[in-house]
Amino acid sequence: MSKQPLEKIGDRLLSVPANGDARREYRIIDGRPVLVDFETSVLEESTVETTAAASEVERANYSGMSQLIKKMLSPDKDGTRKHIEKLREQLATSEGKSRVLVIGGGSIGQGMQPLYDDPQTQIYSFDIYATPNIQFVADAHAIPIEDGFFDAVVIQAVLEHVLEPEKVVGEIWRVLRPGGTVYADTPFMQQVHEGAYDFTRFTESGHRYLFRRFDLIESGSNGGPGLQLMWSADYFVRSLFRSRIAGKIAKLAFVWAQLLDRFIPEEYAVDGASGVYFLGRKTDRTISPQEIIEHYQGAQ
């Protein structure tokens, strides 16, 4: 998608052509622009229009006892809170409000609330479906924002759901200002979730190499083998009895396993982690294949 200025005409946005380019038209649905190139996206234009950009994946609303159980099964990770605090420390060195892009911000991710509450942070958020938490609908493979606009980008539990992670990370690099910060949190050992919209997993080293055009601030495991054991119990029993409910009961029975992660050294956690994270700074340098071998942080 070319990054051209837009003008509003009725319930449409039209690109302002440059050098004789044809104008591109975008819908505004419920007050939110849908800035998607449907020719290159998994989204279908007719479906987006007829559903008012609703999520293709069913997303449950939890309350009462179900909310309590959900909290037990998917607690906020201490690691995420620490990583977001580290990101806020990086942003605190900038003057004025920091512009932060949240990719996949249809819901506020675990451990992310302090970033949203920070008065020195201006959050911009988008997803491939519409919710009150986003400003526009877009596909992360073609972010409709000019180069170098953001001070930081956060992409939490999203890269497993995109077809071309390297293309998305290239877009992140493009929309960040020089020296801008990225925080990414991505599954490693987790089973498939969100069905047909789940594509990829990363080891810690593979995740680091994905962000090879960024200088490393911190990286490692985020959710250890104990948390992954709980996930495995869910999917084993779910598969054996062909029942999601049975799986959730098994997951609840293994909720204690995640508590043991605090006793596992990081070098062992990295090799069997539920997820991995990367905190880095945009640079013009690209790490080499030899450097990624030297980067390995595991116990093997």
In DSSP terms, counting alpha (H) and pi (I) runs of 4 or more, how many helices? 10
Based on CA inertia axes, which overall geometry fits? Answer: globular
Top CATH class of the largest domain: Alpha Beta
Q: Structural class, from helix and strand content?
A: alpha/beta
Task: List the uncertain runs.
Answer: none
Q: Biggest sheet, strands in spatial order? A: 1-2-3-4-7-6-5-8-9-11-10
Mean pLDDT score, rounded?
A: 91
* Radius of gyration, whole Å: 20 Å
Total domains, how many? Answer: 2
Largest sheet: 11 strands, mixed
Q: What fraction, in percent, of the residue positions are helical?
A: 25-40%
SSE order, one letter for each helix or strand: EEEEHHHEHEEEHEHEHHHEH
Straight-line distance between termini: 43 Å
| Strands, count | 11
CATH architecture of the largest domain: 3-Layer(aba) Sandwich
By CATH, the superfamily of the largest domain comes out as Vaccinia Virus protein VP39
CATH topology descriptor of the largest domain = Rossmann fold
**Strand percent estimate:** 15-25%
Protein name: Methyltransferase domain-containing protein
GO molecular function, one term: methyltransferase activity
Keywords: Methyltransferase, Transferase
Pfam family, one: Methyltransf_11
